[in-house]
């Protein structure tokens, strides 16, 4: 039951995170990159602080130096750098392609989990990684000589892939922090952890935000822009991060990698539906490959869990498992 709860939390977290591409499209170009990020984080903190102030103060006093370092890295990678790469990338590529390219996150997360968390890579994981790479190459038009992107377009796609890399590092660091908390340190409540990470990211991004002189741009923004900022804050940041931190406690990084494929699926469908962007067969085919790779990674880990739970009690594990 705890594992199912973890799955539901991760599904909600990455489904909401996938809407960030569409929400950013409503304000990208009207506001600076750090202004969008800082305003979204500010709205998040306004919503979060009333619910956890007392527990937040107790947690701050109890945190170790290593926990502070992990939280700082999560704020830099999962919030600031992810959004910086994504927002700059969206100025050079389409929301459809940006959404699909975030589907590189599962494959990157699996590779990083193998390198840093010593999680084993199985055959299905390798096929999932290969499917992700082929899907990205298909989106880039590598298999179609007549299709050529401009250098600007290619740079945009590379920036989005950089955002996917930051998200993957964030996933692995979050799992490492959850494992550490289950040991000698008391686990941080998901709402408190979200508040701390958001506050760190907001403070770090405040200086470059002020350099963008945001007041004039904010005063001329319409209701759609403000609605997008509100969605980008309490929903995409606060609610999605709370679901993420609650889910990663019950699942390994490999499992979380599978669910991160919800980001490209959500982004692709919403970009076509709400933004009326066109998606040709290479985008759909590449997107399906990426999502299929995500399912393959998740099914392999699920089958492994089933085999472990069905092993009779008292029997030793086979060597190599």
From TrEMBL:
Keywords: Cell membrane, Membrane, Transmembrane, Transmembrane helix. Its main location: membrane. It is found in: Cell membrane. It is a multi-pass membrane protein. InterPro entries: AA-Vitamin_Transporters (IPR050638), EamA_dom (IPR000620), EmrE-like (IPR037185). It comes from the Bacteria. Residues 5-139, 192-298 form the EamA domain. It holds the Pfam family EamA. Signal peptide: none annotated. The chain crosses the membrane at residues 7-27, 33-56, 68-86, 98-117, 124-143, 155-178, 190-211, 223-244, 256-275, 281-301. One of its GO terms (cellular component) is plasma membrane. Belongs to the EamA transporter family. This is EamA family transporter. It comes from Paenibacillus rhizosphaerae.
């Amino acid at each position: 039951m705890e594992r199912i709860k973890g799955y539901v939390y991760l599904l909600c977290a990455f489904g909401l995170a996938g809407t960030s591409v569409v929400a950013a499209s409503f304000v990208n170009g009207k506001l600076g990159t750090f202004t969008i990020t800082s305003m979204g984080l500010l709205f998040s903190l306004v919503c979060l602080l009333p619910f956890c102030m007392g527990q937040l103060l107790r947690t701050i006093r109890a945190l170790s130096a290593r926990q502070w370092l992990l939280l700082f890295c999560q704020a830099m990678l999962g919030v600031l750098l992810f959004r910086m790469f994504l927002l700059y990338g969206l100025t050079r590529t389409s929301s459809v392609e940006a959404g699909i390219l975030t589907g590189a996150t599962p494959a990157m997360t699996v590779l990083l989990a193998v390198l840093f968390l010593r999680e084993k890579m199985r055959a299905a994981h390798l096929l999932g990684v290969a499917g992700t790479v082929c899907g990205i190459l298909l989106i880039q038009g590598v298999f179609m000589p007549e299709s050529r992107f401009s250098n600007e377009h290619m740079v945009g796609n590379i920036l989005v892939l950089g955002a996917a890399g930051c998200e993957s590092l964030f996933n692995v660091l979050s799992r490492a922090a959850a494992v550490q908390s289950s040991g000698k340190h008391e686990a941080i409540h998901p709402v408190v952890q979200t508040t701390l990470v958001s506050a760190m990211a907001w403070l770090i991004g405040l200086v470059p935000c002020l350099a963008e002189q945001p007041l004039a741009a904010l005063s001329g923004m319409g209701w759609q822009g403000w609605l997008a900022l509100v969605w980008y804050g309490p929903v995409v940041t606060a609610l999605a991060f709370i679901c993420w931190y609650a889910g990663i406690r019950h699942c390994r990084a490999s499992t979380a990698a599978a669910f991160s494929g919800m980001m490209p699926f959500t982004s692709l469908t919403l970009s076509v539906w709400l933004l009326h962007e066109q998606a040709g067969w290479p985008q759909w085919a590449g997107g399906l490959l990426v999502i299929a790779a995500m399912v393959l990674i998740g099914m392999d880990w699920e089958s492994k869990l089933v085999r472990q739970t069905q092993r009779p009690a008292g029997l030793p594990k086979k060597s190599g498992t």
